[in-house]
Please model this.
Amino acid sequence: MNSATKKFCLIIASAALILTGCSKKPKRPDPSSTVLGPTGGGSLTPQDTTPAADANSGLTQRDPNIIETDDMIKGLLGAVYFDFDKSSIKEPERAKIQAAKDYLAKNPTYRILFEGHCDWRGTDEYNLALGDRRAAASKKYLISLGIAADKVESNSKGSLEAKKNATDDEMQKDRRAEIIVLKK
Model:
């Protein structure tokens, strides 16, 4: 094949590709049938895209403070709060431990972990010991309610998660024993 024939074949092949490769452009939808509407400035807000809750669906909104993993649930049961430099459980806080007992009665395969916390004042060693006493007091009270000792654990975080130079209200929230549900 000579070069003129090659050029001619190349031009024919290119023309065939161009003619067959071009297809009709898709038809655009009517603007009035789109989400934004005919003006193009419709109000698409998160409320517009959220499906309405069905009263019969049985779904409930979960508290955003509850953290659940495959191993544990944190924040489901309220924390037990303590006075400054104390590890004794106050009368109003005992209902929270009773709630933990009731939860274990409904979920017998789960266990409870009391995690002791302190405010930022005091040395690290002292706060770890105080957190341990708070968690142990909570554990002891739950066992006294009839829960088997092998279903309850205690741990101390001391002041590791406490807010430094906190206000009195913030420090009061740091003096606690978190009740964590252990699934495994």
Remarks:
- The mean pLDDT is 84.
- Residues 124-144 form the longest helix (21 residues).
- Residues 72-182 form a domain with the 60s Ribosomal Protein L30; Chain: A; fold (CATH 3.30.1330.60).
- The longest strand covers residues 72-81.
